[in-house]
């Protein structure tokens, strides 16, 4: 086991054959790919629901109010718990992290595999409700509606509960991996920023997810027996539920955003052939964001009946999210300065990220400031904002990462030209879909509306049109990446001439990642 | 750039006192975002053109610049503080109702709004308010969380079961304004739409006198029979209370004749009197005591009686309790 | 969280010859003894009244006990510092959770849970005379109310197929058929159903009586002609004297605020201000 | 791979058995951190509702039997003690002593559950149950069900952890008897030890919070 048999041509993909060698694998790269595949499936499901919702609002009357409520609930639940949260850490992170730190595997490969199957179980439980009574609570499960609803909400609650543990174990694994398994010479100041991001993400995962777990557990008991902590009819407090829920779900936004930021911090130096601007500042900002993430959840509740004092405190604290975020954006842009930019797909997606994320971040200020939030919260402004932040950052980051690591994952190159078109389509589609929603929100269109007053028709139709562009973009991406898998040119071991250690091995790598344990002697971005 | 759009009617009508100040702050934020956005994305475009690999084969080796980093940490910090303070100042005036505000009770339930006026008048999904007078709403929900949202007034407040949340506004534009439920509340969430009807002085006076308001809009027409008719008596709160005391079975144990020896205390002369409890303590029978005794009878047991009454918490609607209390009050 | 505390090069976290501190039995017994004593203290203190001090003291003792367990039984004293940081970190974030949540629940306005004093005032004026007798305007008003109150379950046409009905085990009444109505189809009986509710249908007693009458009339207008009400039927539902416009409600005198009453009288000239 | 009986063959991505032990222990600590926050939700609810209705908590806690609570505290601390014994015995490769102490720990855990079940039986009989199930007429405070929601929530969750602990202790017992552990390899024993002490730790806080409200 500890010695490496490296017969030429063998890699982690073909080292062992057969289905059983995959379902029982302990190799972080294979587990990463299994996550990737699963998440692409759930992403497809969530996408279909999104299209349905958009069609309904675009004026095609395709469903009843109840079906609509189920549709947006599934869209939200699937996208948040089964796509955006595990997308980069569990899929890309699992594949890349050990290689980035020159390790053979994560600290606990068995727990890693277990967490995948836990995720699968939870996802299956949630998906089961599609064939039962469905669920119509919205992904936020607000009590007391989630207590009253006659739909099979309990299944989804338990599903999310279980998926939470998958998230916890991934985080636990990454923390220990980064602490204990760094290659010789890989000091903390030489750690690639993607690792810093995954590290901060893991810290959030292990700290916040347990609270979601207990919240969903209590809510399930509330439905089953009426334990009365959240149900006003039995003396509980429904607003307390919102505190419990957002204590997890706000940091969760950073579980989604931070890894994407990490990816961008990798991509930009590589494709501008320059060291990242202000490495320490970015690493620090990453942890700054992770910490502040736990202090600001109340800004989701400014009109919920929360005390004015709490509103004051949470609004004030929320403002400080802007500072480290700003530092990162400025540093990324400054990294481009006097570089030698190579506009491959990953950098294009990084640009999309910067554009979309900046818009998302700035509109965040509208919702962090108390006065503006009162009018804008629970309207389409919020919907647009968090799509810009979640989809914008996470999805663009994920696509950047996918195009960045594709050669390493499969040893194949994709067509650059097709990638550029895909990027263009998705970017345009995204903005056409969601920018109008800012205006709809400002005009006062509440979210989760099945039907709306005539004033809002035009912009909704525009938005629906945009959703088709996005869909086209993804279908296109699926086609050319699929083609690359079967007919793509063989990838060199380091196609982007990156300096991080994960590129200093074969593509695709061998099961143990490296022939011999690498020794790190320089920083990750020293493009001299 | 679409960012300039907010200046061209993308905000709803300014129909309340606060709206103009709100819009000013909003537009400030839009401009600020715009500037920031131009800086960041402008720089990106310029760098993308100027420094791509065809123009520039070798990148310059720059690891950072502490002065720059200090500035782009410090300046945003100052800006966000400005945003916070401005936002908080406007917010305070949005939530603190003046003491002379006219109070209207709001009861939300799946999926309609009920408005109760001090005159006993009760409206469904149509809330009539006076022009240029502060109005305070005291709101509660009977089932799940709803949210009272009037875009033209720039106000929103969740309506939570078990709580009495408040919101206030001073309407400045006559006529009808949209009222939306902004917190997802189930099947007909998007159908839980009402109308705020702002009345001029004369109409408001008439409204309080129980007259129909001709200007009440398309959905408001109540037929000709009643229009402009002078107020005549109908079932009062107390009467409804009496009805309820029958339908809810109170009369089985409580009487209003004062006859002694019943299973439970009589209503006659109860209100305002001092009642002795089994534990010897004395309580004045006021609204709160009666309400408590209805919702949670076991809390206080009157001397000489057994704790046999069922809890009515959750079984009675808000205004049914109002009515019962009014009825008990009326039995002197 | 813990990253600052083991900034060493990788040699700190690999290959280190790490010597295990093995607790001696004597040590274990000592710690155990302390814990037992402290438990006795906790119980003892709880039974002396120290006023507000009780809670802090109890917590202090508990924290001491906890630290003993963590430091010795769990070996944090001899272990790598990062493990202590992890434990302390967990309590730190738990504290954040509790404190910031308290900022809301413990700082709400005192009256937010108190039911406001009910308006003790009169109901509005009647919209109709004898609303229990068939009148077009009454039915029209009923239709309007129906569209606000009932469509969600009973559907636009009253066929019992509203959007909300889909989720219901027991389907709402189809008004277009006269068959097997639970409480009968006399106006008074429908009025009664509206007042008390039936099966899954809630009580609409909160609506003014005449609104309930209007609804009853509209609902019945959707199906075959209903049987008529007898005087007794009407008495059952509180219409003491059907010949009177207001149903002869006992004590039907207006109990509206006096100033408003005077104003009203002044308006229709019952008494002239001199 | 090494075949020396005194060094367990560790996973291929670790440098040494010690390295693996260090990593596993840290992993366990991170897991315990998640446990703290898992219980945290209930502790938060406790803190909030106790500060909102102190008189209710004071009244309701009288219906808990502090003597049984104290007894359980003693039982758990003793079990913690025997577990510590078992760990050190394993580290010193004293197999029989380890076995005896593990058995003691298991029995004490059973004792804890027996006492708890008596308490629960009594509460259920009295109708002192969480939320909607509450049907006791002695307590007049309308919010009283909340206290028992929290009581059953916290103690129930803790009890569940005790049962999980008992299962892994049995597993350890089996492996110790089989002779899997020696001076070079006792990682599982140490990890389970950490977990068991944590369960004790939680109870050390629950006892005064629930039984000794003053």
What layout of secondary structure does this protein have?
The complex is a heterotetramer of chains A (528), B (332), C (274) and D (214).
Chain B: H1 17-50, H2 66-95, E1 102-109, E2 112-116, E3 122-124, E4 126-130, E5 134-141, E6 146-150, E7 155-159, E8 165-170, E9 175-181, E10 194-199, H3 201-208, H4 237-247, E11 274-276, E12 282-284, H5 287-295, H6 318-330
Parallel strand pairs in B: 1-5, 4-10
Antiparallel strand pairs in B: 1-2, 2-3, 5-8, 6-7, 6-9, 9-10, 11-12
Helix pairs in contact in B: 1-2, 4-6
Chain C: H1 25-46, H2 54-73, H3 81-105, H4 136-149, H5 151-154, H6 187-196, H7 209-221, H8 231-236, H9 258-267
Helix pairs in contact in C: 1-2, 4-7, 6-7
Chain D: H1 17-52, H2 54-61, H3 66-91, H4 95-126, H5 144-178, H6 187-211
Helix pairs in contact in D: 1-2, 1-5, 1-6, 3-4, 3-6, 4-5, 5-6
Question: In a nutshell, what does this entry contain?
Answer:
The complex is a heterotetramer of chains A (528), B (332), C (274) and D (214). Chain A is mostly helical and 528 residues long. Chain A has helices at residues 19-23, 28-57, 65-100, 109-128, 145-148, 153-180, 193-224, 238-272, 279-292, 308-319, 322-336, 345-368, 370-376, 380-410, 416-443, 457-487.
3D structure, described in words:
The complex is a heterotetramer of chains A (528), B (332), C (274) and D (214). By secondary structure, chain A is mainly α. Chain A contains 16 helices and no strands. In chain A, helix 2 packs antiparallel against helix 3 (65-100), helix 6 packs antiparallel against helix 7 (193-224) and helix 7 (193-224) packs antiparallel against helix 8. Chain B has six helices and twelve strands. Chain B has helices spanning 17-50, 66-95, 201-208, 237-247, 287-295, 318-330, and strands spanning 102-109, 112-116, 122-124, 126-130, 134-141, 146-150, 155-159, 165-170, 175-181, 194-199, 274-276, 282-284. In chain B, the strands form three sheets. Chain B has a five-stranded mixed beta sheet with strand order 3-2-1-5-8, with no helix packed on it. The termini of chain B are far apart. The model of chain C is unreliable at 1-18, 250-259 and 268-274 (pLDDT under 50). Chain C folds into two domains: 22-107; 125-268, Cytochrome Bc1 Complex, Chain D, domain 2 (Orthogonal Bundle), CATH 1.10.760.10. Chain C has helices at 25-46, 54-73, 81-105, 136-149, 151-154, 187-196, 209-221, 231-236, 258-267. At the A-B interface, helix 3, helix 8, helix 9, helix 10 and helix 11 of A face helix 1, helix 2, strand 7 and strand 9 of B.
């Amino acid at each position: 086991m500890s010695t490496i048999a490296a017969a030429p041509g063998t890699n982690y993909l073909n080292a062992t054959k057969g289905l059983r060698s995959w379902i029982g694998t302990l190799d972080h790269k294979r587990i990463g790919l299994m996550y990737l595949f699963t998440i692409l499936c759930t992403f497809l499901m969530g996408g279909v629901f999104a299209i349905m919702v958009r069609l309904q609002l675009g004026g095609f009357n395709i469903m009843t109010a109840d079906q609509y409520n189920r549709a947006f609930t599934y869209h939200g639940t699937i996208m948040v718990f089964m796509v955006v949260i595990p997308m980069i850490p569990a899929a890309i992170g699992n594949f890349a992290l050990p290689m980035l730190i020159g390790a053979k595997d994560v600290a606990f490969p068995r727990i890693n595999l277990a967490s995948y199957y836990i995720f699968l179980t939870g996802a299956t439980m949630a998906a089961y409700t599609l064939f039962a009574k469905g669920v119509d609570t919205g992904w936020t499960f607000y009590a007391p509606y989630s207590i009253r609803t006659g739909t099979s909400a309990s299944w989804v609650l338990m599903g999310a509960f279980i998926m939470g543990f998958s998230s916890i174990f991934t985080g636990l694994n990454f923390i220990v991996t980064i602490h204990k398994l760094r290659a010789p010479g890989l000091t903390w100041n030489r750690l690639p920023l993607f690792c810093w991001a995954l590290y901060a993400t893991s810290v959030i995962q292990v700290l916040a997810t347990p609270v979601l777990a207990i919240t969903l557990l209590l809510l399930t008991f509330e439905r089953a027996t009426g334990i009365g902590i959240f149900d006003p009819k039995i003396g509980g407090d429904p607003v307390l539920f919102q505190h419990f829920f957002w204590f997890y779900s706000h940091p969760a936004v950073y579980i989604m955003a931070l890894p994407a930021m990490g990816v961008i911090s990798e991509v930009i130096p590589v494709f501008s052939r320059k060291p990242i601007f202000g490495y320490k500042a970015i690493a620090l900002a990453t942890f700054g964001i992770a910490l502040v993430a736990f202090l600001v959840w109340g800004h989701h509740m400014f009109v919920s009946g929360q005390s004015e004092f709490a509103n004051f405190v949470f609004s004030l604290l929320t403002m400080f999210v802007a500072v480290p975020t700003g530092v990162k954006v400025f540093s990324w842009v400054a990294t481009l300065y006097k570089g030698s930019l190579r506009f491959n797909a990953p950098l294009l997606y990084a640009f999309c990220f910067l554009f979309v994320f900046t818009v998302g971040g700035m509109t965040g200020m509208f919702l962090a400031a108390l006065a503006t939030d009162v009018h804008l919260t629970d309207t389409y402004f919020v919907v647009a904002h968090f799509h810009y932040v979640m989809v914008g950052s996470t999805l663009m980051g994920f696509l950047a990462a996918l195009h960045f690591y594709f050669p390493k994952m499969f040893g194949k190159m994709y067509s650059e030209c097709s990638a550029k078109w895909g990027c263009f389509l998705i970017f345009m589609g995204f903005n056409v879909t969601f920018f109008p929603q800012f205006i709809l929100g400002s005009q006062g269109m509440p979210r989760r509306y099945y039907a709306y007053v005539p004033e809002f028709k035009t912009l909704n139709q525009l938005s629906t049109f945009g959703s088709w562009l996005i869909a086209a973009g993804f279908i296109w991406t699926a086609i050319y990446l699929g083609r690359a898998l079967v007919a793509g040119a063989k990838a060199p071991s380091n196609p982007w001439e990156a300096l991080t250690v994960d590129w200093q091995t074969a593509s695709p790598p061998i099961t143990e990642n490296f022939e011999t344990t690498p020794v790190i002697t320089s920083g990750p971005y020293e493009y001299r | 750039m679409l960012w300039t759009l907010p200046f061209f009617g993308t905000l709803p009508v300014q129909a309340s006192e606060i709206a103009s100040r709100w819009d000013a702050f909003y537009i400030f934020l839009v401009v600020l975002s715009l500037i920031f956005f131009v800086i960041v994305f402008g720089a990106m475009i310029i760098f993308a053109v100027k420094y791509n690999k065809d123009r520039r084969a070798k990148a310059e080796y720059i690891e950072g610049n502490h002065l720059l980093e200090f500035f782009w940490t410090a300046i945003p910090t100052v800006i966000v503080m400005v945003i916070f303070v401005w936002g908080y100042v406007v917010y305070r005036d949005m939530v603190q109702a003046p003491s002379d505000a006219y109070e209207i009770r709001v009861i939300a339930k799946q999926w309609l709004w009920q408005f109760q006026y001090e005159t006993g008048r009760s409206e469904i999904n149509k809330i009539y308010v006076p022009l240029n007078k502060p109005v305070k709403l005291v709101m509660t929900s009977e089932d799940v969380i709803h949210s009272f949202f009037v875009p033209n007034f720039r106000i929103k407040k969740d309506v939570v079961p078990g709580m009495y949340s408040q919101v206030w506004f001073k309407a400045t534009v006559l006529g009808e304004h949209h009222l939306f439920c902004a917190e997802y509340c189930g099947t007909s969430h998007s159908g839980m739409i009402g109308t705020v009807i702002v009345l001029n002085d004369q109409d408001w006076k008439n409204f309080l006198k129980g007259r129909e308001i001709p200007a009440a809009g398309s959905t408001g027409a109540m037929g000709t029979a009643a229009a402009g008719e002078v107020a005549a008596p109908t079932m009062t709160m107390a009467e409804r209370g009496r009805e309820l005391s029958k339908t809810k079975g109170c009369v089985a144990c409580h009487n209003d004749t004062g006859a002694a020896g019943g299973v439970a205390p009589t209503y006659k002369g109860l209100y305002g009197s001092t009642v002795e409890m089994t534990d010897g303590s004395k309580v004045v029978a006021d609204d709160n005591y009666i309400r408590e005794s209805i919702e949670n009878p076991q809390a206080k047991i009157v001397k000489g009686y057994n704790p046999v009454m069922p809890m009515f918490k959750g079984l009675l609607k808000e205004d049914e309790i109002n009515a019962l209390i009014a009825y008990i009050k009326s039995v002197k | 969280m813990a990253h600052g505390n083991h900034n060493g090069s990788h040699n700190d976290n690999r290959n280190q010859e790490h010597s295990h501190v093995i607790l001696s039995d004597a040590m274990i017994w000592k710690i155990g003894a302390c814990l037992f004593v402290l438990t006795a203290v906790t119980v003892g203190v709880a039974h002396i009244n120290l006023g507000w001090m009780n809670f802090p003291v109890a917590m202090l003792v508990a924290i001491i006990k906890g630290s003993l367990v963590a430091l010795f039984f769990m070996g944090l004293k001899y272990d790598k510092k990062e493990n202590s940081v992890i434990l302390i970190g967990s309590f730190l974030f738990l504290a954040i959770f509790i404190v910031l949540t308290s900022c809301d629940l413990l700082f709400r306005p005192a009256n937010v849970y108190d039911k406001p004093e009910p308006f003790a005032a009169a109901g509005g004026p009647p919209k109709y005379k004898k609303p229990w007798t068939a009148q077009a305007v009454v039915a029209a008003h009923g239709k309007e109310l129906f569209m606000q109150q009932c469509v969600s379950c009973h559907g636009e046409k009253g066929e019992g197929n509203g959007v909300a009905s889909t989720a219901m085990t027991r389907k709402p009444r189809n008004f277009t058929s006269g068959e097997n109505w639970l409480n009968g189809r006399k106006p008074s009986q429908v009025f009664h159903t509206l007042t008390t509710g039936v099966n899954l249908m809630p009580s609409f007693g909160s609506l003014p009586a005449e609104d309930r009458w209007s609804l009853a009339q509209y609902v019945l207008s959707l199906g075959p002609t209903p049987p008529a009400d007898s005087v007794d039927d009407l008495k059952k539902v509180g219409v003491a004297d059907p010949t009177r416009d207001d149903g002869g409600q006992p004590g039907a005198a207006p109990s509206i605020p006096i100033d408003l009453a005077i104003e009203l009288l002044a308006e229709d000239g019952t008494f002239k201000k001199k | 791979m090494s075949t020396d009986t005194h060094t367990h063959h560790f996973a291929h991505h670790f440098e040494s058995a010690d390295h693996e032990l260090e990593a596993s222990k840290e992993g366990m600590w991170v897991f315990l951190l998640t446990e703290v926050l898992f219980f945290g939700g209930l502790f938060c609810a406790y803190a909030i509702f106790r500060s909102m209705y102190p008189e209710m908590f004071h009244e309701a806690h009288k219906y808990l039997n502090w003597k049984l609570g104290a007894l359980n505290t003693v039982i758990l601390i003793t079990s913690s003690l025997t577990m510590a014994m078992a760990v050190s015995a394993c580290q010193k490769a004293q197999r029989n002593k380890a076995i005896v102490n593990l058995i003691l720990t298991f029995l004490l855990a059973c004792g804890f559950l027996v006492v708890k079940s008596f308490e629960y039986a009594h509460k259920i009989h009295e109708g002192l149950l969480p939320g909607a199930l509450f049907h006791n007429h002695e307590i007049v405070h309308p919010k009283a069900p909340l206290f028992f929601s929290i009581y059953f929530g916290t103690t129930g969750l803790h009890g569940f952890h005790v049962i999980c602990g008992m299962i892994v202790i049995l597993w350890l017992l089996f492996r110790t008897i089989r002779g899997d552990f020696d001076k070079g390899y006792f990682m599982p024993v140490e990890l389970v030890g950490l977990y068991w002490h944590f369960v004790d730790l939680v109870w050390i806080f629950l006892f005064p919070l629930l039984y000794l409200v003053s």
